[in-house]
Amino acid sequence: MKPKVTMIAWNQNDNYVVTAVNNHLLKVWNSSTGQLLHDLVGHADEVFVLETHPFDCRIMLSAGHDGNIFIWDITKGTKTKHYFNMIEGQGHGAVFDCKFSPDGQHFACTDSHGHLLIFGFGCSRPYEKIPDQMFFHTDYRPLIRDSNNYVLDEQTQQAPHLMPPPFLVDVDGNPHPTKYQRLVPGRENCADEHLIPQLGYVATSDGEVVEQVIGQQTVDQDEPGLEPSILDGMIRQLQLEQDQRTGADQESAPNGPQNGEGTPRRG
């Protein structure tokens, strides 16, 4: 098998470079001379996560599809700590991403089963109040492209980055209570009535009736005396003009045989 590099990372002071290879080895190199210093052995599958410690130049974190998470001392080429992401009844979960906290005392990982793993000091009591299932209601909403090939949310016809902060829902789309909705950036100071999404039912192109969140205004836009967003108005105006042009093009197109015996149009 021809070795391939799957990930690369510099350590905190740039003296070392660590590469992950598809033969499951991690290699530590001197960044100035290119000399190979250590082979780090431990992973049993490909590694796509390499994270350096925010201030300790000796420490590097690696995680891979084998569910293993390692803390390495790359100056010595030794393993400092090892965690295994075992999921009861389902085997291990592949680790897709990891990040250190700014103080270097904690790190968080996400896995293939949608779990958020938090490692660090102390007890887990502050995290026990969080629901097991947390999704944004916009996570799986369809997108479309306008005439300029820009991406728009299909339901609201707005650019995704201009939409109001989303609501937190469970896996079935049911909104969480208001105390959890305030965890969403942009909704910290909203009144209770603005934290309860208004649900409605819409028909899809397949004829299936699905439940959608229709209340999309933030508290700032609902308060009296505040003007609506200029950008939102421009987006709505551009979409309206595009719809009018599309309708005009369809009306001007020929609707029947070329011999003059066309069928009448429906109003």
Structure description:
- Strands 1-2-3-4 form a four-stranded antiparallel β-sheet, with no helix packed on it. Strands 5-6-7-8 form a four-stranded antiparallel β-sheet, with no helix packed on it. Strands 11-12-13 form a three-stranded antiparallel β-sheet, with no helix packed on it.
- It starts with a strand and ends in a 15-residue tail after the last helix.
- β6 and β7 (68-73) form a beta hairpin.
- Helices cover 12% and strands 32% of the residues.
- It is extended and about 70 Å long.
- It has helices at 178-181, 219-222, 230-252, and strands spanning 5-10, 16-21, 26-30, 36-40, 47-52, 59-64, 68-73, 78-84, 86-87, 91-92, 95-100, 107-111, 116-119, 135-136, 143-145, 151-153, 168-169, 199-203, 209-213.
- The longest helix has 23 residues, at 230-252.
- The protein has two domains: 5-127, Methylamine Dehydrogenase, Chain H, CATH 2.130.10; 135-216, no CATH class.
- It contains three helices and 19 strands.
- Residues 239-267 are annotated as: Disordered.
- InterPro entries: Bromo_WD_repeat, WD40/YVTN_repeat-like_dom_sf, WD40_repeat_CS, WD40_repeat_dom_sf, WD40_rpt.
- This is BRWD1 protein.
- WD repeats lie at residues 1-39, 40-82.
Give a quick summary of the entry.
The chain is mainly beta and 267 residues long. Helices cover 12% and strands 32% of the residues. It folds into two domains: 5-127, Methylamine Dehydrogenase, Chain H, CATH 2.130.10; 135-216, no CATH class.
CATH class category of the largest domain: Mainly Beta
Number of helices: 3
Q: What count of structural domains? A: 2
Mean pLDDT: 78
- The fraction of residues in strands falls at 25-35%
Determine Rg (CA atoms, Å): 27 Å
Low-confidence stretches: 215-229, 256-267
End-to-end distance:
67 Å
Computed structural class: mainly beta
Total count of strands: 19
* Spatial strand order of the main sheet: 1-2-3-4
- Spatial shape: extended
What helical percentage do the residues reach?
A: 10-25%
The CATH architecture assignment of the largest domain turns out to be: 7 Propeller
